[in-house]
Amino acid sequence: MKTIHLVLAATALTLAASCGQTSSRTEAFDGPAYLNPSLPVEQRVEDALSRMTTNEKIAVIHAQSKFSSAGVPRLGLPEVWCTDGPHGIRAEVLWDEWDQAGWTSDSCTAFPALTCLAASWDPELSLLYGKSIGEEARYRKKDVLLGPGVNIYRTPLNGRNFEYMGEDPYLASRMVVPYVKGVQSNNVAACVKHFALNNQETNRFTTDVKVDDRTLYEIYLPAFKAAVEEGGAWAIMGSYNLYDGQWNCHNDRLLNTILKGEWGFDGVVISDWGGVHITDEAVTNGLDLEFGSWTNGLTEGMSNAYDSYYLAKPYLDKIKAGEYGEDELNDKARRVLRLMFRTNMNPEHKMGKFTSPEHSEAARKIGAEGIVLLKNEGGILPLDGVKNVLVVGENAVKMMTVGGGSSSLKAKYEVSPLDGLKAALSPKGVNVSYERGYVGDASGSYNGVTTGQDLSEKRNASQLVADAVSAAKNADVVIFIGGLNKSDNQDAEGADRLQYGLPYGQDAVIEALANANPKLVVVNISGNAVAMPWVDSVPAIVQDWYIGSEAGNSLADVLTGKVNPSGKLPFTFPVAMEDGPIKTEAQYPGIPTGKNFAMFRFTEETYSEGIYVGYRWYDSKGIEPLFPFGYGLSYTSFEYGEPSANSLSMTKDGGITFTIPVTNTGKVAGAEVVQLYISDKESSIDRPEKELKGFGKIFLESGQTGIVKISIDADALSFFDAQKHEWVAENGEFNALFASSSRDVRKTLTFNLK
Q1: Taking the CB of the first residue and of the last residue of the chain, which one, N or C, has fewer CB atoms within 10 A?
Q2: Taking a C-beta distance cutoff of 8 angstroms, is the pair 189, 143 a contact?
Q3: CA distances from 533 to 378, 495, 511, 581 (A)
Q4: Is pLDDT above 80 for 567?
Q5: pTM above threshold 0.85
């Protein structure tokens, strides 16, 4: 049966391609309207829908395998194939199981994690990222890429923060739109996830989030809205958690009222795997396409497998019993058909590319542009004039593409930081040696993909530190490469971090190295902020990320000065967890409610911090962070000139364009991100001290001056009025703050809204 499905899909794809060729020759099309590529998509959808039976409509709205849903063989409509992202195309698994299918041609390019992309503050790189990963998906004949993720960074303990785009809704919005457009330029649907309020892994199936409307609309929805309204996303994935008492994969308010109603989303709502629990809600509350983790959606052992999905036989039985007509079914099938005609039935018939040199180059560039220089006292970096470099730390050699949950990849290759540094420095006559320093996670496998590394260690912890310290005394520079990894309870799906500090005794190793050699560089690889109790003892600190195939080369490019770092933090590094807005168990991880449903024991979580997430919180409380949002150093320096505007007065249907000159006052070329924050000088409601509402990245040669232009409209001045259920911009004075970070405001300009 499985082979037959695959053959039929291939036949349908061939038919679609041949139709496209017929259309390109402008010959008359003699066939059903739904197969005519010259007709508008909506006309094709309606024609195909009119020809489908009830059983065929049911078949296309739920899974038929782990990652595919059925087509309509009778009509030549192909299956829809999904693939995990958002950092690379997942290895093939078996039809019904997560076990590897054993392919030898599914080793992908691993791109940087989305925290790294967000840290680049470069929408053009986001477009390149989306286009590149979309090409890999199309080459592998995938129709839906399950990504990108845009959930807001609410707590640094969230194990899945590395997959998202930081703490600020505006930054995430600007970075997700080009990613979506890039992916979909390949006739692959971007499935933006996880909608919504999915900001932790602890109790992710049972947490019922309580949040006020203003916070929902100002903080947690904007990136999704931008992906839909500006990016034109063709798919959205519901999240595992609940909001206001309903699971989000069939949440009436989120899916019907907001997504499909207020935003006019015409794409497909796809469940997270196993995120559906109630047939009636799945039918009426906006879900379109159901996928599951096991063969019956949640657990193993169902003999009738996919027919037992909530949108399968249970739904069909209710239609036959007269409990439902076919209006809801037609809407779901219509959306799935629209997805087909946008992707695998698209007459453009893109071919894609896989593990190409261009994709490696893109991964390397994005990685280097996202790395953030946090500290560089004494100009230790870039490495210059050194002969002996000691690299210490397990993360210098441990492969990071394997693990972390559904984003785990089977990469064609992965350049380790140690190998990247050796490749960059050894040809220059620099001796690069290595000591492990600590043992973290010596395993190297996830879901059947193995790294092949032998990270076993016979030395005990004391001996590892002693050996590293001994070697450090003879080195010109010591580079400690540590941080987190993608094991459980670190940066990984399914479980949150257990502590804010570094694991595996790394703090002690860093302190020992700092005492042994004053020229110490600490490279933190993570997708989350971490505590740095040794910050005053270390002259140079670099925030690295899970960069993928080109990880070592991207890092070496920055450490050697081949690339001048220009990354800026997409989230705040607090000194300690208690400095942040999460203060109570009710806020995180939630309190048991005593309510049950089948196997679930619900937890209620209240976002009582409201809109004060990230830098908004630290500003409001006057708390100095370890490193603020938007922060990042360079090997050069930048001076901001006096800003100006085309007008200092705007109306609610108008806008203002600000310009500000920036000069590279250092000795090397580099890029600066000018951040525009807006501050309301007098408001009728409580508002954050400032909010990011624009940014521009500019590259300048030494001594060069350039102009950054940033435009805003009344949206940048607005808050969400929950009582009126509308965005409100009040008349009065506002400050435009031009900053190098959220705590480094360089220039201010006052303007009025009339």
Answers
A1: N
A2: yes
A3: 20, 25, 9, 20
A4: yes
A5: yes
Angle formed at CA 262 by CA 259 and CA 265, multiple of 5 degrees: 45
Q: What integer pLDDT is reported at residue 242 of this predicted model?
A: 98
DSSP designation for 219:
I
Cα 142 to Cα 136, 357, 576, distances in angstroms: 9, 21, 43
Q: Which two tokens stand for residue 45?
A: 């959808």
Q: Verify whether residue 272 is a known catalytic residue.
A: yes
Task: Transcribe 646-709 into DSSP letters.
Answer: S-SEE-TT-EEEEEEEEEE-SSS-EEEEEEEEEEESS-SS---S-EEEEEEEEEE-TT-EEEEE
Q: 640 - beta bridge partners?
A: 662
Residues 6+ apart with CB under 8 A from 324: 283, 315, 318
The rounded mean pLDDT for the chain is: 94
Q: Give 274-304 pLDDT, tens digit per residue.
A: 999 999 999 999 999 999 966 555 555 555 6
How many Å apart are CA 603 and CA 205, to the nearest integer? 9
The length of the chain in residues reads 754
Strands 726-728 and 691-700: unpaired
**Bridge partners of residue 677, in order along the sequence:** 692, 737
Any idea what DSSP says for residue 549? G
The tokens describing 497, both together, are 């971090």
Structure tokens at 507: 């703090």
Distance CA 290, CA 332 (A): 11
pLDDT digits (tens, 9 = 90+) for 528-540: 999 999 999 999 9
What does the block give as tokens for 518? 């004053």
Phi, psi values for residue 697, rounded to 5°:
-105, 130
Q: What amino acid is encoded at 8 in this protein?
A: L
Residue of 143, 272, 491, 544 with catalytic role = 272
Question: Which among 595, 608, 598, 590 has a CA at the least distance from the CA of 204?
Answer: 590
DSSP string for 436-493 = ---------EETTEE--------S-HHHHHHHHHHHHTT-SEEEEEEE--SSTTSS-T
In whole angstroms, what is the distance from residue 482 CA to residue 618 CA? 27
Nearest to 147 by CA among 237, 276, 254: 237
